[in-house]
Amino acid sequence: MISIALILLCAVLATSIVLTDHPVPSVRSWGGIPTSLEEPSEVQKPYKAHSIPGRINFVDFDFGGEGVAYHDTEAGNLGGYAYRTDNVDVDVGTRSGADVPVVSHTYAGEWIQFSEVQVAKSGTYAATFYTSTTEDKKSFSVLVDGKKVATVYAPNTGDWHAFAPTSVQIPLTAGKHTVKITMDTGFADLAYVEFALAAPTSTPSGEYGADANPTGNPIGGGEGYTEIISPNDPRVKFIVDTRDELLSALKNARSGDVIYVEGNANIDMSGYFNVGVPAGVTIASNRGEDGAAGGRIYQKRLFSDPKAPDLRPLFITKGSGVRFTGLRIDGPDTGARVSEWRSGIRVEHQLAEIDNCEISGWGGAAIVFWGTGSATDMKDGGYVHHNNIHHCQGSGFGYGVVTYLGSVCLIEANYFDYTRHSIAGDGSAGSGYEARYNINGPHATSQNFDMHGKPDPSGSGKIAGDLIKIHHNTFLGTEPVVAPPIVIRGVPRVGAYIDHNWFYYTSHAPVWQMNGKGNISMTYSLIGENKTLSTSGPIHYVSWDL
To answer: What span, in angstroms and rounded, lies between the C-alpha atoms of 431 and 374?
Structure first.
């Protein structure tokens, strides 16, 4: 079966249609929904009115025919189910997670449209799309009134008849809108989308900055952290304190195993790169236990090391569910003038967790998320929490945590200092992060939180990823003047939502936007050490880039 990559977020579905090997069902009504007998027309008109909040079935796109209400690259209804009389491919069958006919056999460039979508109330809506595909990295775009507002990545459900939800957030204004769904890749089946008002950030009223920390563990981890793994834990299968023992344990470990690094260990990994950590394996030590610093794994520069450009990390994930906890992971470059990239941990799979570690000296980045993509929850994309990350400040890079190629992650209750950027993203489609309850020390050399700009795939301007959430963080820095706490270097495709932070910085507005204007919501922030409350903004718009 070849399907359309589509779990969308709006009521206008511009759908594409692709040949697949779906079985052809008998002609009948489905679930009490009457079959439409109206012939296609050259005049666009709604098949039915749609309301938000509410549900939109993708098969209920407008009347109007090819190039008017939809675009289909193949003649005839390849799905074989006579729900409608036009050429869009509609299929039905035994399905899990869908109780309506579905738009199927989709190709890149196909689209469907809904011209009468009534939004009851302005706000940010959680749009949950039900789709199926047996392939990875399939996506479609959502457009509202002709403007792209989101990209939806359909998860691989392993079976064309198994449908799974994917949620995105979309800001909508009250009133009537046109919604269009355009297939980026094709090869995904589309069932329906449900819109609900997104709940506001759930924290006690009046709490600002990282002091609102509700996690039960200290910001930055260490002493007082409660999730420390003991060497007596039955999951511990290997106890190591040398490089050879660590490499041997990684070679033999299986999912669920813990490799425990002795608290007094100093493991020299100089000259070693791309050290793989198998799926489901944890490397742990005792940072914070009775004041312990945690076992140390470090890397120095060797004359024989490859020269720049060199993006190879020390550790790299080899599957999902990898965890690093209670360790010290030290790199060779603590200064700000280093111009060669070194990184500590590179995450290429979802469900990774890095917690209660001290990570420093990585001129490129302490932690890199690389092409993980398609996570329906930031935390599933990766979870970085209760770490002390510092002295990562290489020239032109220098990141605490950075997301590349559509990656997302949740970054919570960390202490950052002496970085160029504590958190950054490359701005690519699908990329984003949620940062909450973090403290940013006063010694950053550039903006603390950053999202780069990328050329908009639609052809004009720059995007800055998809969804960014920044709330309940404390930014202690006041200098340099050209290093504001937050810089968004384009227009996020879903939005940047910034609230309940405390900014010491007063030289300019604490949030800057470059290469465009819009899709940033900044509310309820404290500005200055005297905690002046700002209920809206300020945002500084600049025409140049950093």
So the answer is: 9
Confidence at residue 34, expressed as pLDDT on a 0 to 100 scale: 38
H or E segment at 140?
Answer: strand 138-144
Cα→Cα distances 266→1, 256, 269, Å: 53, 25, 10
Residue ranges of E strands in 452-538: 454-455, 462-463, 467-471, 474-475, 486-488, 495-499, 502-503, 511-514, 520-527, 532-536
CA atoms within 13 A on the CB side of 532: 11
CB contact at 8 A, 122 and 145: no
Using an 8 Å Cβ cutoff, are 318 and 277 in contact? yes
Element (H, E) at 433: strand 432-436
Alpha-carbon distance of 320 to 353, in angstroms, equals: 10
Please state whether 97 falls in left (phi above 0), alpha (psi between -120 and 50) or beta.
left
> What's the pTM?
0.68
Q: What is the pLDDT of residues 1-42, one digit of tens each?
A: 333 333 333 333 333 333 233 333 323 233 334 344 445 556
CA distance 257 to 119: 50
Residue of 50 and 65 predicted with greater confidence: 50
φ and ψ at residue 246, rounded to 5 degrees: -65, -45
Name every residue whose Cβ is closer than 8 Å to that of residue 36 and which is 6 or more positions away in sequence. 47, 83, 84, 85
Over residues 305-361, the pLDDT tens digits come to 877 555 789 999 999 999 999 999 999 998 877 777 899 999 999 999 999 999 999
